[in-house]
Amino acid sequence: MLTLAVETTCDETAACVLRDGRIISEAVFSQIALHRRYSGVVPELASRAHLEKINHVVRAALEGAGIRLPAGARRKKIFDAVAFSRGPGLPGAILVGRVAAQTAARVFGAPLIGVNHLEGHLLACEFRKGRADARLKFPLAALIVSGGHTELWRAGGYGDYERLGSTRDDAAGEAFDKVARLLGLGYPGGPEVERLALKAGKKRPSFPRPFMDGGLDFSFSGLKTAVAYYLQDNPRPGAAAKAAVCAAFQEAVADTLSAKAALACRKYGLKSAAAGGGVSANSLLRERVTAACAAAGAAAVFSEKKYCTDNAAMIALAAQRRLESGGRLEHRVEVDPDLEIAGWR
Ligand code: KG4
Ligand code: ZN
User: Running along the chain, 345 residues long, what does each successive block of 10 average in pLDDT?
Assistant: First the structure.
């Protein structure tokens, strides 16, 4: 089964050719340098950059797989499906991916499949060394932690998803990015905060663990505000003080996320947990989720770090899993920036 996928929901323009779960070729253009000076993604700039790069990126992925575009108006049946992220994400950015994917689907005479970007983040956990061999063990608790989303699901199988909780305000990644900005660190903030936290000594401020009320929703804006107040009271922090803030903040986030993931395992009797999305690249979070879930009797899995952040391989895999597990192929392809997770069986 051969799939072409494009991913453009945020600040990566990416394409991938996947054959039977094996990544044949990938191409990506990262817009990080473009958004860095604004310390966050500027939607209009993102859409324009996607538009400028998408043709090169798709072409590069096709060339990497040794696939040539058919000449003229001829069609060439090569792919079993062409997939794209239809949401959630930035409206203008997603549209660019949708137009590119639809064009490719026509050219290659393949069905177009609109994938939920967050489902992609979950399925990215299956990739090991370029192959989707590490099959998820359902039923499981899925912790999706990215720049725009923080959600917990119960996943009963491919296409069988139920949302158990989500953030009431900021996403975990957004909190990392905002705290990094408060500290004058670079963008994206998550990796910067993690790097600096490694240099922290034992003496650290103490920040609240928000929303530990026995429910499965999250809230991170209060934690971010606690950091802002701390910096008001302790202005102009030096390198050591910044490191201490990073470590304390990161611990609070990791504690909250891991406690909720473990709680979901307990509440729903799940023996497995999987974490995906950019923030799941964080080593402390991985440690804490692994430990908390183990205490709840569940084994935790993660994506390889490269596939935690946005990529097209996870979108291709989501389409492939849908095709091979006989999911309803209604080919829902309308763009939906607020798309919520739902089963497709
Ligand atoms: O999944 P992703 O690439 O894009 C979205 O779908 O939003 O996630 C990006 C987010 C950013 O907020 C970034 O700061 C965060 O993931 N992130 C991290 C780490 N690497 C990326 N957060 C904490 N620790 C990291 N190592
Ligand atoms: Zn993402």
Answer: 97 97 98 91 95 98 92 81 96 98 94 96 98 98 97 96 96 96 94 98 93 88 96 96 98 97 98 98 98 98 97 98 76 85 83
Beta carbons within 10 angstroms of residue 229's beta carbon: 10
2-127+309-325 CATH fold: Nucleotidyltransferase; domain 5 (3.30.420)
Q: What are phi and psi of 337, to 5 degrees?
A: -60, -25
Residues 6+ apart with CB under 8 A from 201: 240, 243, 244
pTM exceeds 0.85: yes
Q: Which atom of ligand 1 is nearest to the CA of 177?
A: 14
| Matching CATH number, 140-302, of 3.40.50.2300, 3.40.190.120, 3.30.420.40, 1.50.10.150 | 3.30.420.40
- Nearest ligand to the CA atom of 30: 1
Is the CB–ligand 1 distance for residue 177 below 6 Å?
yes
Q: Please name the residue whose Cα sits nearest to atom 3 of ligand 1.
A: 309
